[in-house]
Automatic annotation (TrEMBL):
It is an enzyme of class 1 (oxidoreductase). Keywords: 4Fe-4S, Cobalamin, Cobalt, Cytoplasm, Iron, Iron-sulfur, Metal-binding, Oxidoreductase, Queuosine biosynthesis, tRNA processing. The gene is queG. It comes from Chitinophaga agri. This is Epoxyqueuosine reductase. Cob(II)alamin binds at residues 60, 131, 152, 155, 166, 213, 239-240. GO terms for cellular component: cytoplasm.
Length: 308
């Protein structure tokens, strides 16, 4: 077996052993088309107050500027679809935040995968990224055949839907590459029609500055703009509407990652429980949750807003 095939088979096997659900690999090149789309999106101000999106533009579009001598971009998907759902009348929380912070969980897996590659192959350069660095992970997932970008802007896998975290490992190894798959959204517009705030301005384009996830997580202002009142459909942290209505998510299956087991309070808290939650209790209960990103003050702000 030639080296490229041997390396590729090893990586796919060990990614699966670490619990990743899907693995795709693409050649490390500059993303010219995606660069133009990103530039246009930023120019229109659709990133709102997320000014970090303007930084490191050259690194976002070229992985070779993140890892010297990069030849391959490995994309890994980890399912987070939960076994259980929240109480129906409670303030809603995005499913990705039900369990432990995915950054911590996935970063550990990426570090282990890279370490195993170095043990097996010798001097391998690489860096793992998960939603915290200038990497266009959905573009790489699409290029490596893991799905297509839906009209809601999410990566959709034909056999498994879209409730996945996307991780990226850029390496200087020369590997066998996958090719992109087709777009299977067809004439469906369910996500566009269902978005509570009209953030899906056209197929595949999300106006981040109108998205409920932006207001409830990214926005650091003390107040949410009054003109958004009555549009949040009781979402207190994030929003899953465009995924919940997607027909492809009928194929979603509960995840197998122990760390993503829902925190009991997320499933069982009523509106009254959230209102009575103290800062000390918040820090204790959600110390390993993505919800700590909004901090106690942010959760209180969001709760006041959705409760009118």
């Amino acid at each position: 077996m030639e080296l490229r095939a041997k390396y590729t088979a090893f990586i796919r096997q060990h990614a699966a052993d670490l619990g990743f659900d899907h693995c795709g690999i693409a050649k490390a090149v500059q993303l010219d088309d995606d660069a133009r789309r990103l530039e246009k999106w930023l120019h229109k101000g659709m990133h709102g107050s997320m000014h970090y999106m303007e930084n490191n533009f050259d690194k976002r579009i070229d992985p070779r500027k993140l890892v010297d001598g990069a030849k391959s971009v490995i994309t890994l998907l980890l399912n987070y679809y939960p076994h259980e759902q929240q109480l129906t009348d409670a303030p809603k929380i995005s499913k990705y935040a039900y369990g432990h912070d995915y950054h911590e969980v996935i970063k550990a897996k990426l570090n282990t995968l890279l370490a195993r590659m170095q043990e097996e192959f010798g001097a391998v350069s690489g860096r793992g990224f998960v939603d915290s660095a200038p990497v266009l992970e959905r573009a790489w997932a699409q290029r490596s055949g893991l799905g297509w970008l839906g009209k809601n802007g999410n990566l959709i896998h034909k056999q498994a839907g879209s409730f996945f975290f996307i991780a990226t490992l850029i390496t200087d190894l020369d590997l066998e590459y996958d090719g992109p798959v087709g777009d299977y959204c067809g004439s469906c517009t369910r996500c566009l029609d269902a978005c509570p705030t009209g953030a899906l301005v056209e197929p595949g384009v999300v106006d981040g500055s109108r998205c409920i996830s932006y207001f409830t997580i990214e926005l650091k202002d003390l107040l949410i703009p009054d003109n958004m009142k009555g549009q949040f459909d009781n979402w207190m942290f994030g929003c899953d509407v465009c995924q919940d209505v997607c027909p492809w998510n009928r194929f979603s299956k509960p995840n197998k990652t122990v760390e993503f087991t829902p925190i009991p309070e997320i499933l069982n808290f009523s509106t009254k429980d959230w209102e009575e939650l103290t800062e000390e209790e918040f820090k204790r209960i959600f110390r390993r949750s993505p919800m700590k990103r909004s901090k106690y003050a942010g959760i209180r702000r969001n709760l006041r807003f959705v409760n009118g």
